[in-house]
Design a protein that fits this description.
single chain, 416 residues, mainly beta, Pectate Lyase C-like, 2 domains, 20-stranded parallel sheet
Length: 416
Amino acid sequence: MVTAGRSNAATALAVALALLGSTAWAAVAPYQPRPAAGGPPSVPAGPLDIVMLGAKGDGKTDATQAVMKAWKNACGATGTQKIVIPPGNFLVGALELSGPCTSSIIIRLDGNLLGTGDLTAYKKNWIEVMRVDNFAINGHGIIDGQGPLVWEKNQCSKHYDCKILPNSLVLDYVNNATIRGITLKNAKFFHLNLFNCKSVLVENVEITAPGNSPNTDGIHMGDSEDVTIKATNIGVGDDCISIGPGTKHVKIHGSRCGPGHGISVGSLGRYKDEKDVEDIQVTNCTIKGATNGLRIKSYEDSKSALRATRFVYDDVRMDNVSYPIVIDQKYCPNNICAKAPGASKVVVADIVFKNIVGTSATPEAVTLNCVNNVPCQGLQLVNVNLKYTGTNNKTMAVCKNAVGKSVNVVKELACL
């Protein structure tokens, strides 16, 4: 996963870890949208149906201005306003949907938004929602980045500090948001990016791109709080879900990943002044055909001192995953690190892997690769049963500088 600028997370989670033993769960309140701002709806300044504003669903006519007019009309009203994108294929360029707004806004997406392949149409991202409270996108439509038109221009596999292509849907400084029912498809870069958000629910969403598409992360979040992802299916060319620095209280439940690079925390420590990652809960999920399963990664020559702590992975099934459980404190893509052993400032502590079962596509089903100056502490492997599917090699664990305990774990993996 390549970090895209600083765009990145947030519904409520509380996880309590019992020291050296079982996992205690704090009650998680159900997601409750806040009441609409401004009382009863006022009459907007103009139509909210983009076809009434001149958009044509022919897949060829630029509908950017129609969407922007609908946003302006809705944002300036009060109460709850619904922007309607009806059935059809609507070609649009960059959409900067900025607040603050005096209303709560719902975008009803029943048609398909197609991102133009003309990269000059974008300043940075494609659809960017900024500084808005009480926002939702729902429906059965598709946000199609049309990534195949531009993926060949992605040079990030060759140059780590590469030019970033537009992310599809970005929420910046958004509070109380819901994304439900829609499909995100073939992003040019990331599909959904949350940065500095609070109270975000992603539910029943499909995110899809070919497994070999470059840097097409499904959901990336950073500096965000209270994010819930549930009943969501993600199959992409990079991390299904990536959790960046400064993110806390994340709940991922009942979701599927694959193809892709798994559910990842990090990479951590690349930049100065990164903040801790705390209270991550992944439950009742399936990861199939991915290169990684559950992964935490940080730079050995980290620029920031931060903690990754209080994570619980419980009831996760692996199906032919190359590396099902990974903690890598020596992450170094493209050999950009200073190669200074013992320089890490990232603390990884109090991590529970519980009820993790299924199959590994490589012998190395568990990898706990921690550094000697800040060893991983408080790790737990509980009821872990992963089997290598190949022949002539036994399932194994590779563990370095990892401190904790194994409970009811198959002998080959009980390295703590």
